[in-house]
Specification:
By secondary structure, this protein is an alpha/beta fold. The protein is 29% helix and 20% strand. It contains 6 helices and 10 strands. The strands form 3 sheets. Strands 6, 7, 8, 9 and 10 form a 5-stranded mixed beta sheet that branches. The protein is globular and about 40 Å long.
Length: 202
């Protein structure tokens, strides 16, 4: 899970720890990801102890507990405040598995079959990256670029883009062999990125 942002649209607050429905926002996403993962970790640049507690609780809440990868900040070789690409590169570098699913901490309603569907499509079509897309009624299709399944072999390509100054996830991923996977429930990717859109106060 990516929780290293600055929370600018939340007044600088650590987004993953803001309460939503009575629980920290990151808790909801971790609960969705834990049953789908062989290993689970968080990339965060502040409040690491608090995120460690959330990760511990989420792993204890599933029947088949995944391996804990712990909580770590963006790797030191990437400049500070470099956005989600630095978090993605950090996750790729430290995962013990070839395939890595990344998701931001502000998606509380992720599909319960997200990992399986992305992986099956990627394997079937020989892609190195699978990106979910959805479409709200009356709206255009939307790719959810920061919610991605990536094979570790894309790390050099993404790192090269990063070093050249690229910070947009979409631009870096489209340099790789990627595909989009349709998810019909658009609400599954509704993100809570302001204090006004959360459910519950603190």
């Amino acid at each position: 899970m990516l929780a290293g942002g600055e929370g600018r649209r939340m007044g600088g607050r650590d987004k993953g720890l803001v309460l939503h429905g009575g629980q920290p926002l990151a808790t909801w996403g971790l609960a969705r990801l834990a049953p789908q993962a062989q290993a689970l970790g968080i990339v965060a640049n502040r409040n690491l102890t608090a995120y460690e507690a959330l990760l511990h609780d989420s792993l204890n809440g599933v029947a088949r507990s995944p391996l804990s990868l712990g909580v770590r900040p963006d790797d030191a070789l990437w400049p500070e405040r470099s956005g989600p690409l630095a978090g993605i590169l950090t996750a790729l570098a430290h995962s013990p598995h070839d395939w890595v699913l990344v998701s931001p901490c502000d998606l509380p309603d992720l599909p319960v079959d997200l990992a399986n569907r992305l992986l099956s499509h990627a394997l079937a079509q020989g892609a190195d990256v699978a990106i979910p897309w959805s479409q709200a009624p009356g709206d255009a299709m939307r790719h959810h670029w920061v919610c991605a399944l990536l094979h570790k072999r894309v790390s050099p390509t993404i790192a090269a883009e990063f070093v050249k100054g690229e910070r947009k996830v979409r631009s870096a991923i489209t340099r790789c062999k990627w595909l989009g996977v349709c998810f019909t429930n658009h609400a599954s990717f509704h993100n809570i990125n302001t204090l006004e859109t959360r459910d519950g106060g603190d």
